[in-house]
DNA sequence: CGCTATTTTGAAAGGGCTCAAGAGTAGTGG
DNA sequence: CCACTACTCTTGAGCCCTTTCAAAATAGCG
C-alpha cells in the first residue's frame, strides 16, 4: 500500500516528468474538487492529519476551542491557500467553511513524496511556511499590544490590500466572516467589534455600503485607516537607535 | 563561489557520506562556537538573513519593536534551538542574548544545500518548523483569551515541564529573563506580572527561593498551577459535541 | 409575515494600565 | 565597611478600556 501510494505520487505529480510548473498549485490541479457547505468542517482539531488541502474558492476559518468553551480563530483561509503543511501527526486546529468552499486534497504521503523529489516544490513549500510564520508573528504583535481600534483597522487594512492587489478598483472590502468571527480572531468581544466599527464610521474612516450587506465595507479614508492601524513603518529608523541605547545602557 | 559553498556543504555535512546522524545538530557540530554577552544582539530585525544559528548554551529573546517604541517578545531561544529556518530574505525580528550565550552559525546557502540533499535533515527541519508553528498557535491562544494569572501560570508551567523533562528532581524553574521580558512576552505590563506573582505566592502556588535570586522559583503546588493555567485538556471531549451542535444549528 | 440569528446599543463592573513612590539588590569607590 | 548610585522589582491609587449583562434593532429565511 505504501508503495502503491508512492508510485501514484510519482505518476500523478510527475516530479517534473510532465514538465508541470514547479509550484504547489500544479500538484493539486489534477485532484477532484470537493465542496463544503457553510459551517461544514474540513477537518477537526485532534484528527489524524492525513491530507493536505488547497483552497480553490471560498473562505474558511481555522480555530481552536479552549477549555472554557470559547473559540480562538488563528486565521482565515482564502483561494490559493494551502493548509496542513506545517503539521505533524494531528491537526492542531479545526478548519471550517464560512462560505461555500471549493477545495482539493492530496494524501499526506503523496504530497511529501512529490515535495521530496522537486526543488521547485520545496521552495514553494518553504515560502508558504515562511509566510505562515510571518503572519503568526504579526498576529502575536497585534494581540499583545494593540487596542481594539488598532486591531480592527489592521484587519480591514489587510483585506483592503488584498482587494487592491487582486485588481479591485474601488476601496471596498468584502468580508465573508461574521462579527463574531472577527471578534474571535482579534481577541475581542463581538460588542467591542461592533462598537469600534460604529465609531470608525462616525470618524468617516469607513462606511457600510448597504445596511442589507453589512459585510461589504467601503474604506473612505485609506490613509487614516493605515494611521489608526498603528504600525507606521517610520519607526524602523528608531529601532537601531533604541537598541544601541539598550546596549550602551547594559555596558 | 556558489559551487564552493555547495561543495563545502556536501563535504562538511556529508549528506550521509560520513554516516553522521541525520539531524540538524550534526550539521552545526563542526562550526566554530561564538559567544554573546548579555544584551548583545545575534542579528537585527530587517537585516539580510544570511545565517542559520544553533543555540548551544544560554537563553536569547526574540522580539520586535513596534511603532510606539514598545517591545513585543515573540519567543525565547534555549540550548538546542535553531533560529532562522522559517525566514526568507530578511530577519523578521531581533534576537538578543539574555544570558551569556554560546552559538554556532551556518551560511544559509550551505544550510539549504545540506537540507536538500538529506531526507533525514529535511524531516528534522520540518519537525522543528512544525513545533515553531504549534508554539506560535499556543501563544496566539494565550494572548487572545487568557487572563494575567492564566498567562503567568502557563508560562511557569512550560518552564517547569522543561526542567522536569531535563531531569530536574525538584519543581524549581530557573528563569533567566527579567520581569520586563516576561511582561513583553505575555502581553502584560511589568507591574501586572509582579503583582500576579505576588498573588500566586500568597495562594501558596509558588515561592521565590531566595530574595537574592528572584529568578529561581519553586512550584509548591504543580497541580494548582496547571489548573490556574487554564488549559485543562478535559475540554477535548466537549469539542465534538459543541461542534456537532454548531452544525445542527446551522442546518 | 413571523421567526430566528445576527448585530447594534446601553449601562455597569472589572481587570489591567498608568503614574508614582518605595523597597530591595548589585556595583563602585572612598 | 559603608555610603552612594543605578537598576530591577514591588506596591499603591486612580483611571480607562474592554468586558459583561441586558435589551432593542435589524437582517435573513421559510
Account of the 3D structure:
The structure is a homodimer of 251-residue chains. Chain A is an alpha+beta fold and 251 residues long. The first copy, chain A, folds into two domains: 2-143, Jelly Rolls (Sandwich); 146-234, Orthogonal Bundle (Arc Repressor Mutant, subunit A). The first copy, chain A, has helices at 2-13, 24-28, 108-116, 119-145, 148-165, 179-186, 190-202, 222-229, 236-250; strands at 33-36, 41-43, 51-57, 60-65, 71-77, 82-83, 94-97, 101-107, 172-174, 206-210, 213-219. A four-stranded antiparallel sheet of chain A has the order 1-8-3-6. A four-stranded antiparallel sheet of chain A has the order 2-7-4-5. A three-stranded antiparallel sheet of chain A has the order 9-11-10. In chain A, strand 10 and strand 11 form a beta hairpin. In chain A, helix 1 (2-13) crosses helix 3 (108-116), helix 5 crosses helix 8 (222-229) and helix 6 (179-186) crosses helix 7 (190-202). The model of chain A is unreliable at 1-16 and 237-251 (pLDDT under 50). Chains A and B meet through helix 4 and helix 9 of A and helix 4 and helix 9 of B. Chain A binds a DNA duplex (30 and 30 nucleotides) through residues 147-148, 178-180, 188-195, 197-198, 211-212, 214, 249.
Tally of contiguous helical segments of chain A: 9
CATH topology of the largest domain in chain A: Jelly Rolls
Average predicted local confidence, pLDDT of chain A: 86
N-to-C order of helices and strands of chain A: HHEEEEEEEEHHHEHHEEHH
* Coarse morphology of chain A: globular
Which structural class fits the helix and strand makeup of chain A?
Answer: alpha+beta
CATH superfamily of the largest domain in chain A: Jelly Rolls
**Biggest beta-sheet profile of chain A:** 4 strands, antiparallel
Total domain count of chain A: 2
**End-to-end gap of chain A:** 63 Å
User: What is the subunit organization of this protein?
Assistant: homodimer
Number of strands of chain A: 11
User: CATH first level of the largest domain in chain A: which class?
Assistant: Mainly Beta
Radius of gyration of chain A: 21 Å
Amino acid at each position: 500500500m505504501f508503495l502503491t501510494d508512492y508510485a501514484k505520487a510519482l505518476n500523478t505529480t510527475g516530479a517534473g516528468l510532465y514538465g508541470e510548473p514547479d509550484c504547489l498549485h500544479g500538484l493539486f490541479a489534477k485532484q477532484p474538487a470537493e465542496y463544503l457547505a457553510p459551517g461544514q468542517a474540513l477537518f477537526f482539531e485532534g484528527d489524524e492529519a492525513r491530507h493536505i488541502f488547497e483552497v480553490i474558492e471560498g473562505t474558511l476559518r481555522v480555530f481552536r476551542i479552549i477549555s472554557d468553551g470559547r473559540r480562538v480563530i488563528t486565521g482565515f483561509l482564502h483561494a490559493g491557500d494551502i493548509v496542513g503543511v506545517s503539521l505533524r501527526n494531528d491537526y492542531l486546529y479545526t478548519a471550517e467553511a464560512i462560505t461555500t468552499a471549493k477545495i482539493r486534497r492530496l494524501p499526506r504521503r503523496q504530497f511529501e513524496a512529490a515535495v521530496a523529489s522537486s526543488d521547485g516544490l520545496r521552495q514553494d513549500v518553504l515560502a508558504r511556511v515562511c509566510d505562515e510564520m510571518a503572519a503568526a508573528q504579526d498576529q502575536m504583535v497585534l494581540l499583545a499590544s494593540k487596542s481594539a481600534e488598532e486591531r480592527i483597522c489592521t484587519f480591514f487594512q489587510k483585506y483592503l490590500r488584498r482587494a487592491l492587489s487582486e485588481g479591485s478598483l474601488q476601496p471596498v472590502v468584502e468580508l465573508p466572516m461574521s462579527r463574531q468571527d472577527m471578534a474571535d480572531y482579534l481577541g475581542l468581544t463581538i460588542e467591542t467589534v461592533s462598537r469600534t466599527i460604529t465609531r470608525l464610521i462616525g470618524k468617516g474612516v469607513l462606511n457600510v455600503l448597504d445596511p442589507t450587506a453589512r459585510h461589504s465595507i467601503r474604506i473612505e479614508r485609506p490613509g487614516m485607516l493605515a494611521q489608526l492601524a498603528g504600525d507606521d513603518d517610520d519607526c524602523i529608523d528608531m529601532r537601531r537607535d533604541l537598541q544601541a541605547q539598550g546596549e550602551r545602557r547594559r555596558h
